[in-house]
Amino acid sequence: KGGDVMYEIKEYDAGRGMPPAQVEQVLFDVPLDYQQSFGTGSPPSSQRGAALLRGVPKLRALVCLGIVCAIAATAVMLGWTKKSGIPQAASAGQKPPPSPGHEAAGLIDDEPFPTTCSDLGYLCISDRLNFGEHLTRGSAICSRDGLYMFGMKENGSLSWRECDANKIEIEYYNGDDGDFFVMEANATFLVYNKQKEVVWRKDSKFKVHPGPDRCLPKHSCPYLHLHKHHGGVILNWFDDDGVWGTTNIKKAYDL
Question: Where does the pLDDT of residue 126 fall: very low under 50, low under 70, confident under 90, or very high at 90 and above?
Fold first, then answer.
């Protein structure tokens, strides 16, 4: 392959008892550059050997070039696979990567997916509550990770809860069916019954300027914000001097 088949003739020394005319034919392939140098005829042995030696560096160069090209092609394919998001097969004993849902929740390995407040049947209206908005039976504000709630249970009780595995629950008011919660413009906490009578009240320890004062594009002060990760319920307000205040409701009220 790559050239004509030539015969190398080797003459044996007559002094060794071999006939001078006895020859051994050795079959080998002739490189293309050998043919270009000498054609298809049979050149002298010395010239033929020199041509073969000249072809060795070129053959090595071709082999090296092929190896380099193979490595480059493999690197390009691996980079494209990673960039395109195609999952790669896991090696033996290696765990597969976490699913997107587990990554979003910060979970790894075989950790079970957490139970959210929505899973427990709460109607999560937002992670913030404006003053004047009502929380009725079963409705609550929930943290953005879905793990904490502040609002009314089905039995009319005002509670804060860590929903995953029912770890912690704080009940501020043990109410009745039909009770609802509202925060007034001066940040006072109130619970009304069906007859719209106040049955529970907590005043803020801070001097809150009555709203509406625009704090955020969609929220006027005062408002409540239930934070993710730690589940803190934060009161945000402006005082009479226009200074924005923020603190946990555990410090703002006698709860």
Answer: very high
